[in-house]
Amino acid sequence: MQLRFEPPPPADATMELRVVQPSELPARPAERRRTPPTSAFARLTAAAGPLLASLVRLLAPLGRRLAPLTQRLAPYARKLRPQYPRPGRTDWRRWIPSWRQSVGAVLSAVGLTGALLVVAYAATDIPQNLNTYATQQDNVFFWSDGTPMARTGWVQRQDMPLKDIPEDVRWAVLAAENASFYSDPGISVSGIGRALWNTVGEGDTQGGSTITQQYVKNVYLNQNRTVSRKLTEAMIALKLDNRMSKDKILEGYLNTSWFGRGTYGIQRAAQAYYGKEVGELNVSEAAFLASLLKGAGLFDPSLSKANYARAVERWGWILDRMVDIGKLSPTERAKYKTFPEPLKQSRTFDTGKQSDYLVELAEQYAKKAAGISDKDFDLGGYQIYTTFDRERETALTDAVAKARKEAKEDDAGAAKTAHYGASSVAADGRILAVYGGPDHRTQGYNESNATTVPAGSAFTPFVYAAGLENGIHKTRDGSATPVTAESLYDGDDAVPVTTPEGPYWDRSGKKVAAHNDGKKSYGQISLHQALADSVNTPFMQLGMDTGLDKVRSTAEAAGLLSSSFGAQVPALSLGNSTPSAIRMASGYGTFAAAGTHVEPYSVSRITRNGSKVVLKKPASRRAVSAKVAEEVQSALTDAFREAHPTAAASAQVAGKIGTTQDDTALWYVGTAKSVSTAVVVYRIDLTKSLEPLPLKGIAGTAADSVPYDIWSGAMSPLG
After folding, report:
1. Phi, psi for residue 89 in degrees, rounded to 5
2. What does the DSSP 8-state code read for residue 10?
3. Phi-psi category of residue 658: left, alpha or beta, with phi > 0 → left and psi -120 to 50 → alpha
4. Which band of pLDDT confidence, cut at 50, 70 and 90, is reported for residue 17?
5. Exposed / middle / buried, residue 699 (Cβ in 10 Å: 0-12, 13-18, 19+)
């Protein structure tokens, strides 16, 4: 119910207030439901709304200043105002504009459009930050022979300087996408018009873009198909064309465009489709890659027969187009009648297995030696040329795989907890191969670089070198007495270790004594022969006579890390340190290199987008004298010959086994042709602890050792 006042009554009537029923009220018109614009004009108007609002805000101050002048000119303007509907016409003819009115409307529209574009151009800035995908690249790692080994990073892109992209490749792309690139202003007016019409009429903006516009879209904008994005793209393209050289724009475009198969940029596309560098492409292959820019999903021949047909057709058209624009002679064009078949699928890198361990080592070294921060490395673009030898890596991996298989067949239970660490290092410090574990994805640490188990008797060559280098002290304050290869020591088992003051007692009050393998006694034996026969007891005493500090410093100079050493007690001489396989191989390599040592390294060269990165390489240093190194190497050569008389007659082969007193590890370290390889087998149950377990025969015996089998397989042929 509502109250309503009636209009005042006539003079002779009586005013009354009455109640009006809802049914007596006039019906209100139904609310109009808003519907989205459906016509092309309505869509364009809706999209241009924000732009017009910006224009109004920009022109408002100017309007206030011109207000007085406008008032003066208003009377004259009213005289010029067109009369519409037209006077003197009847019916429908009065609604038809005159030619003057039509021309005026067109000129007004052109003027308004021009003003809008000028304002839009002035108001649009080139963004300071590029898209993440436009700046991020992958890092590519190479084998020592220069072939790709692995890559890291989320984006498959490698930037290439324009000078390293052949001219034929560039013009194949320009012929396909924008032949007038070097003469246009950065935009195509007709192309933008078509794109805008497609957008408002059909919801699609494909086509109509110059290379400059496509580059802008790649690096500054998103891929949204809207009018505002298209207009912004055109404005930025105009400004960019005025500020950046055409060559720089083309270089950026070729390095940021999508080519399918997960790749961005012409360099990675060349690798994905033809397995070669972009500099190795011919014009025919380049024409196919250029066709992918129109839509890799439609032109990758490996995806479907329809794709294959489209690719062949567009490939031929691009070559013909290059002839039309004078960038390919008819004679040259005639050579390419057969479609350059791309690879059926990209050559994938071997990841998740041994290459991941190699990448891990190389990445760590590259960052340290080249001073590359984690942030810069993650942005990518680096080409890391490693020292890893593909053939040696394969041989080492195969040898360990064979040992694993045999261990599983012999004792599946023990094999589950077996670990194998191995590495080959050249005398000049290059790490040639490593075995890091069965699978980096399931085992996150590198067994070749792990400091887990003691070196055992494999450490004795460093004790021998320290004695030969420094001499021995039989009295506390006396001068050093020289030691030679023929110096005799007691080789019996369980011989107590002595100091100038008498026996050496441990903290529990027991005399410390060393033991030989199998508790075998040898009597008086020369140091040379003791090393050749792997007799342990002489070297524990030699370490005490030389000085454990000198033993340790000699081992460190030869390549072992100070962090791997434990307590400085007599057991130091029998390998209570826990060096990695890489460090043990490097240490033995010092003897093969006449006493000079080079820190092991895994990267020989680094470039970023073709430019050289300064890399600090390790320098050679003297660890022991050449004479001492020669004698240690001679004893190790005899050790190899006596243990393996039928293996090889070459004097260049030297090495020895390494046992531990608690039977938790078995080593073999040896050198052949200036390459040292160290192999260790041990057991650890990672689900319980990092404490080494007894081998239980999983590594064989001293006479028939699994580490030696792996070593010989990795170093074959030895002759």
Report:
1. -115, 155
2. P
3. beta
4. very low
5. buried
Handedness of CA 530, 628, 581, 566 (dihedral sign): positive
Position 133 pLDDT exceeds 60: no
Closest CA to 663 of 692, 688, 637: 692
Q: Which residues pair with 384 in a beta bridge?
A: 141, 606
User: Contact 228/248 with Cβ under 8 angstroms?
Assistant: no
What percentage of the chain reaches a pLDDT higher than 70? 76
- Rounded to an integer, what distance in angstroms lies between the CA atom of residue 685 and that of residue 403? 19
d(Cα 622, Cα 32) in Å, to the nearest integer?
Answer: 94
CA-closest candidate to residue 655, choices 639, 666, 667: 639
Distance CA 528, CA 395 (A): 32
Strand positions, DSSP E, 129-231 = 139-142, 148-152, 156-157
**CA 469 to CA 552: how far, in whole Å?**
13
Within a 13 Å sphere around the CA of 677, how many CA atoms are in the beta-carbon half?
28
Provide the pLDDT confidence category of residue 295 given band limits of 50, 70 and 90: confident
How far the first Cα of the chain sits from its last, in Å, is: 115
Instruction: Compute the Cα dihedral for 310, 313, 315, 321 and give only its sign.
Output: negative
Tokens standing for residue 675: 């390459």
- DSSP secondary structure string, 498-527? EETTEE-B-TTS-B-B---GGG----EEEH
Is 80 exceeded by the pLDDT of residue 91? no
